[in-house]
């Protein structure tokens, strides 16, 4: 059955889906393909709070060949499929509209090899991020991607959404951590050779095309990951900064002058800082007094003695110049962990600020301060009593904005989104810095993508998945 690449819902009848599921079960067995009565009560939605329908079947392959067989059968029957990893996404990209089969990669969870000479690791897509981090550490390396959901999110999901995290300023997004991919296309064909070299100019880069495609072009099954040298020294400081100009000066100066560079540069506005310290009594204020901005600065390198001295000298110089109003230097890992606990407090949002409307947007670094001010002012004008929390990874222009007002009805969310996304569009920003488009941002994607770009994206989708079987209704607006 032919579908258009922009249709929102799968167009199979119940009888057609039943035939597809029977064929899947006959080919792969009841161990791999389970039916609704058998997986009743299983969670199918991600962390975005987007409603999700139940799948017509749950496919849990153990091998790439299982995935290929499943997709060949689904292609033959026109059965839509949604690939799922750890279900930690925040855009509804793994949720189902109704009528799809869910293909969970949870059983494809294994580190296959580590190459200590080439500093690579080959893993199956269902492997949790934390497992990869720990294996890299045991092998004497570091895998730099780090997210709060590290224990639950999977490498396949990190790739599908091009995950970011706190270390992007030093190591880049997820696409910078990968040398090659193996993936199963919509028709069941397998692409990718698991090559372990950095230089590979052999035509179109399917790896980078699939990274960030949110499961709409193929199902990623394996990856060759880049490992990095493990830092031998980490210097961390909590800084009170008097102005946004001073914040950007601190960023520029730290990138130019610190011998080991900058591994994290997290900026928090006072509203966020005050909120988390008031609501979480286990957190302690690193500095006395109040400041216009708070910066968590981290530098990690290979020479402990040289780095420590250079870091302290740099902070002293910034204090003398007035770029920093005050600073606290972490003298132990416990101190650094206490600083990071303030920045990682969003993990407590479900308990602290239910009913929140959250944004993950990005701007040119020089525009972030103005963007935050404009969003905050417009939100405060409309909702004077709202809690407005602003913070972000300044080194990559990523701004997080969280808004909530007591007793807000759910119907107010679109109005809040209109304010923030309106500013984002006007200033040439991105409506999604690191969580993808999924379902939640379909209506605002055109604020960050031109009609020609959207047309090119639809052409790619139509070429690789002409039946619109892979994650239909996500990423591309109708």
Write the layout of secondary structure elements.
Blueprint: H1 14-28, E1 33-34, E2 58-59, H2 64-77, E3 81-84, E4 101-104, E5 111-115, E6 120-124, H3 129-138, E7 141-142, H4 155-160, H5 168-171, E8 178-185, E9 190-191, H6 206-210, E10 218-226, E11 228-229, E12 233-241, H7 244-257, E13 264-268, H8 270-279, E14 293-301, H9 304-321, E15 326-329, H10 333-343, H11 349-352, E16 357-362, H12 368-382, E17 387-393, E18 398-404, H13 413-426, H14 451-464
Helix pairs in contact: 1-2, 12-13
Characterise the protein shown here:
This protein starts with 13 loop residues before the first helix and ends in a 14-residue tail after the last helix. The model is unreliable at 1-10 (pLDDT under 50). It has 478 residues and is of the alpha+beta class. It has helices spanning 14-28, 64-77, 129-138, 155-160, 168-171, 206-210, 244-257, 270-279, 304-321, 333-343, 349-352, 368-382, 413-426, 451-464; strands spanning 33-34, 58-59, 81-84, 101-104, 111-115, 120-124, 141-142, 178-185, 190-191, 218-226, 228-229, 233-241, 264-268, 293-301, 326-329, 357-362, 387-393, 398-404. The relative contact order is 0.13. 32% of the residues lie in helices and 19% in strands.
Name a few traits of the molecule.
478 residues; alpha+beta; Uridine Diphospho-n-acetylenolpyruvylglucosamine Reductase, domain 2; Alpha-Beta Plaits; seven-stranded antiparallel β-sheet; 18 strands; 32% helix; 19% strand; disordered N terminus
């Amino acid at each position: 059955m032919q579908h258009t690449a922009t249709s929102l819902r799968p167009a199979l009848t119940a009888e057609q889906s039943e035939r597809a599921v029977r064929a899947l079960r006959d080919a792969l067995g009841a161990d791999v393909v389970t039916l609704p009565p058998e997986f009743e009560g299983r969670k199918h939605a991600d962390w975005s709070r987007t409603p999700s329908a139940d799948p017509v079947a749950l496919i849990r392959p153990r091998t790439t060949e299982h995935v290929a067989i499943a997709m060949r059968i689904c292609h033959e029957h026109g059965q839509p499929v949604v690939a799922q990893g750890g279900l930690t996404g925040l855009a509804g990209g793994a949720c189902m509209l109704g009528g799809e089969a869910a293909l969970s990669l949870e059983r494809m969870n294994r580190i296959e090899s580590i190459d200590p000479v080439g500093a690579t690791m080959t893993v199956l897509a269902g492997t949790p991020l934390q497992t990869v981090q720990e294996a890299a550490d045991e092998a004497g390396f570091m895998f730099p991607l780090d997210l709060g959901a590290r224990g639950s999110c999977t490498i396949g999901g990190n790739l599908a959404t091009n995950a970011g995290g706190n270390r992007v300023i030093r190591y880049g997004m997820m696409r910078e951590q990968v040398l090659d991919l193996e993936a199963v296309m919509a028709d069941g064909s397998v692409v990718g050779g698991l090559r372990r070299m950095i230089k590979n100019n052999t035509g179109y880069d399917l790896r980078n095309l699939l990274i960030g495609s949110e499961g709409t072009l193929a199902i990623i099954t394996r990856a060759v990951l880049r490992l990095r040298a493990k830092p031998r020294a980490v210097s961390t400081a909590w800084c009170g900064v008097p102005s946004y100009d001073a914040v950007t000066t601190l960023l520029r100066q730290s990138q130019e002058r610190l011998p080991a560079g900058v591994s994290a540069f997290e900026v928090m506005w006072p509203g966020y800082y005050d909120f988390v310290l008031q609501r979480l009594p286990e957190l302690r204020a690193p500095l006395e007094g109040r400041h216009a901005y708070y910066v968590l600065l981290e530098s990690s390198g290979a020479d402990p003695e040289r780095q420590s001295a250079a870091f302290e000298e740099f902070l002293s110089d910034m204090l003398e110049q007035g770029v920093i109003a005050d600073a606290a230097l972490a003298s132990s890992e416990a101190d650094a962990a206490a600083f990071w606990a303030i920045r990682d407090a969003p993990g407590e949002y479900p308990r602290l600020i239910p009913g929140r409307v959250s944004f993950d947007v990005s701007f040119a670094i020089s525009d972030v301060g103005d963007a935050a001010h404009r969003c905050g002012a417009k939100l405060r004008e409309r909702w004077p009593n709202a809690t407005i929390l602003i913070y972000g990874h300044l080194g990559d222009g990523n701004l997080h904005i969280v808004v909530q007002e007591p007793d807000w009805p759910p119907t107010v969310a679109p109005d809040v989104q209109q304010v923030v996304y309106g500013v984002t569009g006007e200033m040439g920003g991105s409506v999604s810095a690191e969580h993808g488009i999924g379902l939640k941002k379909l209506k605002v994607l055109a604020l960050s993508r031109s009609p020609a770009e959207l047309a090119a994206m639809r052409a790619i989708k139509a070429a690789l998945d002409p039946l619109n079987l892979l994650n239909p209704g996500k990423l591309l607006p109708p």
